[in-house]
Write a structure and sequence with these properties.
Length: 222
Amino acid sequence: MSVVLPGLGEAYLGHKRGYLMMAADIAAWFGVKHYHDKGNDLKDEYLAYADEHWSETRLDNSFDIINFDPAWGNFYFGVTDMEALPLWVSKEDDFREYYENLGKWDQFVFGWDDFISPVDLGYANVGGEVGAAYLKDPRVSLRREAYRALRRDSNDQFTNRDNLMYFNLLLRLFSLFQVAYLQGMLGGGDSGPELETGGVDVGIFAEPMGLTASRVGVTVSY
């Protein structure tokens, strides 16, 4: 009962705390779905944003040394096309890695449609928010930063989802051992009926092993 729904075993034994545990588990599962859906919505949003504002053609042209343009070509000497870039992977070969690279690595910044070479502009001609960004790093695209923010937001939702799933798992383990304790199988609680599975006696034990370790186990008598 505790594995299926934490608190159900406690409620079966007449302990009202079981109802609180059941409510917590159910609420957590609603949270899991909420954060999972929100994370996927944001994922769809950042994928669409990348498709709209980042281009393989634009990236490839930035490394075209045949049509050498000092405003672009001085970043990676000797690179003839994007497939020669370190860490390049196509969308077909690795969909997840492809979209991660767009925001993660500097050599892909040239594919964003708002990237302007600081060689072309010169620092003196760049002002406002764009200028402040360029003074920190000349390989900055504000749309790249917006894309990275969307990815972080999406990943945060998935992290919230995972944390609630860990909570549900731990709640089941806690409920399992609490019921065993209440049944007197771990040395506490009221002495109750022995645990049986298919007519076979099953016992649960937990014991310390020195000062820094312990062990938990199950015994089966037949």
